[in-house]
Amino acid sequence: MVAYSPARLQHRLDAAHLYTLVLEKGSVGAQYYAVADEGVPIRQIAQIIGRHLNVPLVSKSRDQAADHLGMAPLTGIPESM
Predict the structure, then answer these.
(1) What is the pLDDT of residues 8-49, one digit of tens each?
(2) What b-and-e string marks burial along 31-44, b requiring 16 or more CB atoms within 10 Å of the CB?
(3) Phi, psi dihedrals of residue 26, rounded to the nearest 5°
């Protein structure tokens, strides 16, 4: 007997919804990928790197980071980390 948890059922419902959207609104020949992971926050990556390099982590806005690093803000970086 296989037990199904509510979370497992929800993932199946999410996948079914995704297939429906692709069939209704997708483009012919396009490729679609579904991922159950929300990714790793940039702040968490910075914390781990800082800890391993023994460097303190400091929060900066995009503009402050650009001034500090001497380059334009990176795409996808939130206004404040």
Answers:
(1) 666 788 888 888 988 999 999 988 887 766 778 878 888 999
(2) eeeeeeeeeeeeee
(3) -75, 165
